[in-house]
Amino acid sequence: MSKRKATEMEEDSCKIPKSSWQGGLLRSIKNPKMKIKEDDKVTVIKDLYPKAVHHYLVIPKEPIVNLLKLTKDHLHLLEHMDAVGMEITSQFPKEEFRLGYHAVPSMSQLHLHVISQDFNSPFLKTKKHWNSFTSKFFLESQGNTKNPLPSVFYVMLCQTPDLI
Ligand SMILES: [Zn+2]
C-alpha cells in the first residue's frame, strides 16, 4: 500500500470503520474524481467497482440505511433521485440504461444505481454480480424502462417487506 493511501485511510478511520462499504462510499463522495454531480439533496458518484461502462450511484445526503427505512416523507426525495439519474442518462443518448435499487440492500446508505446495459467491465466477475443487476433483485425505479416501479412502491416496502 502506498504511503498516500495509508494516510487517507487513517484520516477517515477516526470516524468510520475503514473496512466498511460506507467508508468507501464516504471517501468517494469526498473524492472530486469520483463525484459527478451534487445538489442540496443528493451526491452522484461513479460506482467504486463499476459493473458496466457507465455505472453511477445517486446517494441522498440524508442518512437512510436502506429501502426498508423509507417513509412517505421520502417520496419527493426518491422522485428527485430518479430525476437526477435520468438527467445523467440523457448525457449518453446512445446508451441504454436502467435505474434501480437492490432488493437485498447490503450497504449502509441508500443508493440508486444508474447503470448502462453493456455490462462491459472487469469488475463484473461473478454470477451474483450479474444477477444483482439483471434479475428481480434489481428493482427498477422510474426511468426509461418497460416496467418502472413508482417511487411510492419503495415507501410501501417498509410496511410490507415481503413484497420483495
Ligand atoms: Zn447497490
Automatic annotation (TrEMBL):
It holds the Pfam family DcpS_C. Keywords: DNA damage, DNA repair. Residues 22-124 form the HIT domain. GO terms for cellular component: nucleus. The keyword Nucleotide-binding does not apply. PROSITE patterns: HIT_1, HIT_2. One of its GO terms (biological process) is single strand break repair. GO terms for molecular function: DNA 5'-adenosine monophosphate hydrolase activity; double-stranded RNA binding; mismatched DNA binding; single-strand break-containing DNA binding; single-stranded DNA binding. PANTHER family: APRATAXIN, APRATAXIN-RELATED. This is HIT domain-containing protein. The lineage of its organism: Eukaryota, Metazoa, Ecdysozoa, Arthropoda, Crustacea.
